[in-house]
Design brief:
Structural class: alpha+beta
Distance between the termini: 53 Å
Number of strands: 10
Order of helices and strands: HEHEEHEEEEEEE
Number of helices: 3
Length: 180
């Protein structure tokens, strides 16, 4: 009897598995931290899902995110640090980070920054009304390791931290550490 139940369970599993292969899963982001059920976070998660789909990225893309008011307009902007698939979003020197500005009813992509690794510091210092972002640059193709300050230009943050000047003596200011 147990053998018959076991055999039936195996057949049922194989049938379910083969049926699921016929359908492609929807392209949905899988955040590293849970999304809260507030409408603002859900709107942000929808924007990230649309962004990932627009890049024709793998449906199993994973990332970390945080929400902070970078431009001091009373709305929490969104930052995502991609994690996997590693070969799609990352390289030997780090992964892609994206910054979305919160608007009334949507989010706009403001910056694409790569490569970066956590931790990242949102500095207390501001440039053009936005907080500076401190990243640590390291890796084979970058030579010396260094801390750099990404300063908002009025339209975006610099996209390639490796080409920014080193903060003399390393960053020692205040701020909020994200993506530890």
């Amino acid at each position: 009897m147990r053998s018959l139940i076991f055999l039936a369970a195996i057949v049922l599993c194989l049938t379910a598995c083969s049926a699921s292969k016929d359908k492609q899963p929807p392209v949905l982001p899988l955040p590293e931290q849970p999304a809260f059920n507030d409408p603002d976070n859900m709107l942000f998660m929808d924007a990230v899902a649309e962004f990932i789909q627009s890049r024709e990225a793998p449906g199993n893309s994973r990332y970390e995110f945080t929400r902070l008011d970078l431009n001091h307009d009373g709305r929490r902007d969104g930052l995502i640090l991609m994690k996997s698939p590693h070969k799609y979003w990352c390289g030997a020197n780090g992964c892609d980070m994206y910054i979305f500005m919160a608007a009334n009813d949507h989010f706009e992509l403001v910056s694409e920054i790569a490569p970066v690794r956590g931790p990242i510091i949102i500095s207390n210092k501001k440039t053009n009304g936005w907080n500076d972002i401190i990243v640590h640059v390291s890796g084979r193709s970058h030579g010396e390791t260094k801390d750099v300050s990404l300063q908002f230009t009025g339209a975006t943050y610099p996209g390639q931290p490796a080409f920014q000047s080193e903060i003399p003596g390393g960053y020692k200011g205040g701020g909020i550490k994200i993506f530890p």
